[in-house]
Amino acid sequence: MEHTDQAWIDGLRDGTAQVAELRDFLRRTLAKGFGRQLQDADLDDVTQECLLRVQQKLDTFAGHSKFTTWAATIAVNTALSTLRKRRYEHVGIEQAGEQADWSADAATDDHRVALLRRAIAEALTDRQREAVQAALGGLPLTELARRYGVSQGAVYKLLHDARRRLKQWIEEHTS
Amino acid sequence: MSDKPTAATTLDVLLATTQDEEIDCDRVLDLLPAYLDGRISDASLRAQIVLHEKHCPECAEEIAILRRALEP
């Protein structure tokens, strides 16, 4: 049976059977979304972590979407953070930067690669340079955010400012 | 040879689509449930989220997983 958003909220505040129903919904949602990346006991553990996170954030549900979409968004975000942390916790920021592949290819020739690398070396602050290189080496923004102790949005802003500086520097040096 | 774009090509694509104003991941994550439910009526805001998906592989992955998870 489908519940209204209010019925979900009221039921979860009462701590009744709705908690078990939400756990089942989150488990199904994560299983469908992540497939083989998240299975069996691992799926159960992550589901429990996500359930707690949704319950903690219950008061912030503003009704801009269906309750189930809102809860699924929190669950997928929580699960992704957990999986990325596991995958990248032993990869250093500098190490990630060194993994970036700076070879030329069909779209970007040697001259352009050299220009981009010079722009990174000359136009950016130390923090911007480190973050750009790590991101290009495949380190997720969520992991950079965790290492820097800031939000993912703050890392995005750092990288956005870096892109704007790079764009301007390249315009000045190629016109 | 890897199919993954090189760092230079990735950066070039990012620079070509960089705008002066872009919404960040925190804002996208706030908007995401309403976006997925088709409840954002502001077309420019929807376009900003689409642009953000191009610039942020993490949010793009999150949106793809959610779309798969929530499809009927």
Notes on the protein architecture:
The complex is a heterodimer of chains A (about 180) and B (about 70). Chain A is mostly helical. Chain A has 2 domains: about 5-85, RNA polymerase sigma factor, region 2, helix turn helix motif (Rna Polymerase Sigma Factor, Chain: A); about 95-175, Arc Repressor Mutant, subunit A, CATH 1.10.10.10. Helices cover about 75% and strands about 0% of the residues of chain A. Chain B has helices spanning about 5-15, 25-35, 45-55, 55-70. The interface between A and B is large, with 47 and 37 residues.
Give a topology summary:
The complex is a heterodimer of chains A (about 180) and B (about 70).
Chain A: H1 5-14, H2 17-34, H3 40-56, H4 67-88, H5 93-98, H6 110-123, H7 126-136, H8 141-148, H9 152-174
Helix pairs in contact in A: 2-3, 2-4, 3-4, 6-9, 7-9, 8-9
Chain B: H1 7-16, H2 25-36, H3 43-55, H4 57-70
Helix pairs in contact in B: 2-4, 3-4
Summarize the structure.
The complex is a heterodimer of chains A (175) and B (72). With 175 residues, chain A is mostly helical.
Short key terms for the protein model shown above:
heterodimer, A: 175 residues, mainly alpha, Rna Polymerase Sigma Factor, Chain: A, Arc Repressor Mutant, subunit A, 2 domains, 74% helix, B: 72 residues, 68% helix
Number of strands of chain A: 0
How far apart the termini of chain B lie comes to 38 Å
**What's the oligomerization state?**
heterodimer
Given as residue ranges, the uncertain stretches of chain A (5+ residues, pLDDT < 50) are none
Helix coverage percent of chain B? 55-70%
Strand content of chain A: under 5%
CATH architectural type of the largest domain in chain A:
Orthogonal Bundle
Helices and strands of chain A, in order, run as HHHHHHHHH
Counting structural domains of chain A, the number is 2
Largest interface: A-B, 47 and 37 residues
Mean pLDDT of chain A: 94
